[in-house]
Specification:
The complex is a heterodimer of chains A (741) and B (278). Chain A is α+β, with helices and mostly antiparallel strands. The relative contact order of chain A is 0.14. In chain B, α10 (233-246) runs antiparallel to α11. The chains are: A alpha+beta (741), B alpha+beta (278).
Chain lengths: 741, 278
Amino acid sequence: MTDTSTRERADRVVGHGLGTSAPRPDGTPKVRGQFAFSSDLWADEMLWGRTVRSPHPSARIVRVDTTVAEAMAGVHAVLTAADVPGRATYGLEHTDQPVFASDVVRYHGEAVAVVAADHPETARRAAAAVVVDYDVADPLVDPEAAIDAIPIHPDGNVFRHVRIVHGDPDAAGDVVVEGAYEVGMQDQAFLGPESGLAIPAEDGGVDLYISTQWLHVDRDQVAACLNLEPERVRLTLSGVGGAFGAREDVSLQVHLCLLALATGRPVKMLYSREESFFGHVHRHPARMTYRHHATRTGDLVKVEARLVLDGGAYASSSTAVIANASCFAAGPYRVPNAVIDGWAVRTNNPPCGAMRGFGAVQACFGHESQMDRLAAALGMDPVDLRLRNALRTGDVLPTGQRITGVAPVRECIEAAVAHPLPPPAADDPLERPGGAGLTVDSADVRRGVGFAVGFKNLLYSEGFDDYSTAAVRLELAADGEPVATVHCAAAEVGQGFVTLAQQVVRSELGVERVVLRTADTGVGSAGSTSASRQTWMSGGAVQAACEAVKIALAARGGDLSAGPIEELREHHHRPTSPLDERGQGDAHVSYAFAAHRAVVDVDPGLGLVRVVQIATGQDIGRALNPLAVIGQIEGGIAQGVGLAVMEEVLVADGCIQNPSFTDYLIPTALDMPAVAATLIEQPEPGAPFGAKGVGEAPTISSTPAVVAAIRAATGVELARVPVRAADIAMPQAASRGAAQT
Amino acid sequence: MTIARPRTVADALDALGALPGAQLLAGGTDLMVEINFGRRSPDDIVALRRVAELGAFEVGEEVVLGAGVTYSVLEHDLADELPALAAAARTVGSPQIRNAGTVGGNVGTASPAGDTLPVLAALDAAVTLAGPEGDRTLPLDAFITGPKRTAIRPGELIRDVRFRRPRGPQLFLKVGPRNAMVISVACCAVVVDADRRRVGIGLGSVGPRPLRATAAEDALAPLVDWDALRADRDAIQRAAALSAEAAEPITDHRATADYRRHCVGVLVERALTRGLEP
């Protein structure tokens, strides 16, 4: 997918230390189908768990009758809210979500009970035999209305209102443009559905093998719900088939452990693809209104924005997502004055939380659509307008925070623009809009080019100390050669920490043989594999442990024969502070920037799109593994393209309409554009090795770049993503259709 | 559950007789989805993959496609002889699905979105059913009675699909919101039959069954220059408009009825333009 020059450069950097394209240790087994994912877990005598879920988005539970299910042959347990020995609720930041709904259900698919049986089909039938009488209520599904509506939860309907007031709120520019934008509900669409295996332990505790993003935060939530000391809940990471934020929240963890303890048997659960859509949070849908003020010469004067994010039934990470969306609402530009209102609200829609880009994605579609609108109003080139206002080191964000790290926004933009444009229309009809449907002849294809820039924070913000821990042990193997062993709880979810940890140790200790212990809760927390943070945080912890090993080895005169050396270290980033009541504060540690230029071919008659190429410049600090960086850029662009033109969880009256990969569409090879990437390497002060996290930035501005290109090709105003074919082919009719849904 | 694995059509019919109500299984690309979603749990299954005669095909004056002919065979082995069917087969699922799914399965499932169905409709195809009392043949239009409903009787299976091989361009165009591996939002097939001086126009995903745009066909036939195989732009646009009128689309989570009807007009105009170069 990537243009050959970048790919070849990445491939040429051979070796095994930092800065090389060292191969993934799990790469070969994954492509050979030999990698054990959590869905492959197996234990002798294990039972199968199955969840009973609400078919209604809003209802009062009148009665739950488990007697028929319990009496079925092969059924070992049927558990409801009454069987939760500890805390009845869980949650990442606010424990507002019931382990099992007991009095009311607040979303379509909410868990009401769970069963364990000796066969998955028996478990399915037992789950179907659990009788739940519902008194169905009208769901609250309009996020705007939710702000003032009667609360649907004791904690209220507003998860958080962030108000950022910066500079002079009454400032005005010569030129003013307004717009209203919408972002649909995207799903992370990881390929490995939720799965895990819980095994009861002799000490009354439980061992849980699980695919997750953060072992320790899962452990703490499970222990609280089980009423066990955290030490008696031991988690081990199992093969993770993708995450993208969807494994930050607890899904089946508590249910599995409850069943294992209730039955005294190992219990496995594995969601089907359909259930997976109900089993994890999605990206928040957003409604946004913007007003941009600028001088006649194109200097931004003020940005006013109102963002409403639909958090669905439970809090998940909504409070942090809306902080991000609000902090980055004005984009990577110098904005002297700003008034930004961000709301994250509770509704009876599916719960929403973390997904790659985490609030910045939604805001970026708004601010970049506005920048194009402003450029048109000013008669300026959209790229020039962005260059003119691009953030630099030393500039102040609308939160009042000064950027002290590198901020190569100009370089990202210039690099993206510098890539050659792709050749005109494709000869191969499969590569035209509509692809295999062979719907369009080349004469009917229109090409458009669009541009966008985005940014977001790296690591956790607003005072959160998301430290990481790593132990490094150096010893002589049986053959007399040195071997290093790393123990770190960082969840490998596909991003490549397993590769990086080996590279760090090789470079720091000069040892070729590096063994990674399985990530588990037997070592301190590594924090979450999210927020583009593991290279920085856990890479930093591994580096610090290596440093300590080196010192200990030197104290021994470099002699390892006396026995192993093991050192454990934590890495903490510099402290941050929460936003104050005016949305001001040094809330973030660092930022990553990226610019995207999209070239699309559109069939205006049918509204079908083929994204031809995305050229990007990305601020990465330093490429510790160039091939892995390119992989993150390509993958992030795939998800950005998906949000632009096809990916949406369709929700009608609170109910998901398309919980399958038949109808929730993600890009195929015929939808994925060529990628031309330039890595902007300016080491970030304070970051281990100068490296910034690279996973999220590619997802943020690729979406608005594609939409801008479609607008350029068609002249159609497109205010909502994903762009549907009818929005392009019949914009008047499409807006009527949208009003009905 | 009993799973019968016959090797001949005769044995398959015996198995159906012995297992009343048994579910037929060919490629499994529809049935296994239904089972996995818990929508169907058949008591018995008659699996047809080992029935070699169902996988055969003949292309002469008449084309006979055994019910077990897969999409992959249509796509790769019959692309020159049956270009529209091959194009339709190419749009079905992934290569793995196309290796498994069969033309008999597509016809037997009778989904409104079945990709080969509008092509078979435009080709005036007939369906041969094998049953305990022998074979019977029904026009496709009589076989498919509604969405996922057919005239198949208990004890019968689809032996083949057959049609007279026309002389002239054959086209298939399909709209979906992704460039591959997507369920049809609307599709059309155009079959130019120079011998009978007719242009067959089949429509898919815009009605409860595959549709024929007969009013458009009737209006178009006299306006075609049959020696040159050409029609002028007015005639094509008229036929496209009549085809859009013939559509009976619904609004669902995949598309609105308005958009589907719009697509029919665009697709038919483009297909006729490719086939009858104005």
